[in-house]
Amino acid sequence: MESQKITDSKNGPSRRRYEDACGTAHALDLIGERWALLVMRELMLGPKRFSDIRADLPGISANVLTQRLESLEEAGIVTRQRLDPPASGQVYALTEWGHQARPIMGALGRWATRSPGHDPGQHFSAVSLMLSFQAMNQPSLSKDIRAVVGFRVGRESFFARLADGMVDVQRGAAPDADVTFTGAPPTIAAAVYGGVPLAALERDGLLAVEGDRALAERFITLFPLPPKALKPAR
């Protein structure tokens, strides 16, 4: 596929498009720019202010975030919304079509964890951590669990409903949570994906667990990382 550079009259040369009728090629036209897919990821569990998106993507500049939001809005993937009183200001949200990328994003993430270069110890935003539970869920491990698991992660709350081998994550507090984890995303990821015992994280003051202890201990075993892909011998 040959990529053609497109000039944006406001921002100068910035985008390249594939002159290819393949749907995969057009998907890259829409979200192939650096940061675009991660901006979408941060909106998967609900609208966010510009400042909140940037805070959860610490490597992005304000200028680049503005460009990505504008291009995603132009493509019909993102929309702007005004907050209802007494709140004020503007938030960005995915359109219905934008939300349909959620299972695609999960499948892509699961596939990429097989890369020998993938490091689960790097930055985790709260949303990326929550979405990872859906992407990495193995129904055979959770099929007998019916529970609600809550998470207090920095300024946000989330919960995961487990039933019939499925995991559904949502943003917001869960008053009926059977167990609740409180900690930073990398800390919770260390327990789930890094094998760090809950007791060790609690002892160091990095994590708090409230509620059903047995469920907490089992929850962190439900999302094993797949084996790494082998590099072909040279």
Concise summary:
By secondary structure, this protein is of the alpha+beta class. It has 11 helices and 9 strands.
Describe the structure.
The structure is a single chain. This protein is α+β, with helices and mostly antiparallel strands and 234 residues long. It is 38% helix and 23% strand. The chain is globular. The strands form 3 sheets. A 5-stranded mixed beta sheet has the order 7-6-5-8-9. The protein has a two-stranded antiparallel ribbon with strand order 1-2. A two-stranded antiparallel ribbon has the order 3-4. It folds into 2 domains: 3-100, Arc Repressor Mutant, subunit A (Orthogonal Bundle), CATH 1.10.10; 116-219, SCP2 sterol-binding domain (Nonspecific Lipid-transfer Protein, Chain A), CATH 3.30.1050. Mean pLDDT is 91; it is low at 5-13. A hairpin with a 2-residue loop joins strand 6 (156-163) and strand 7 (166-171).
Rg from alpha-carbon coordinates: 19 Å
How is the biggest beta sheet arranged?
Answer: 5 strands, mixed
Structural class: alpha+beta
Would you list the SSEs in sequence order as H and E? EEHHHHEEHHHHEEEEHHEH
The H-level CATH homologous superfamily of the largest domain, spelled out, is SCP2 sterol-binding domain
Q: Could you name the ranges where pLDDT drops below 50 across 5 or more consecutive residues?
A: 5-13
Q: What form results from the Cα inertia axes?
A: globular
Instruction: Identify the CATH class of the largest domain.
Output: Alpha Beta
Proportion of helical residues: 25-40%
* Number of helices, where a helix is a run of at least 4 consecutive DSSP H or I residues: 11
Question: Into which percentage range does the β-strand content fall?
Answer: 15-25%
How many β-strand runs? 9
Looking at the overall shape, the CATH architecture of the largest domain is 2-Layer Sandwich
**CATH structural fold name of the largest domain:** Nonspecific Lipid-transfer Protein, Chain A
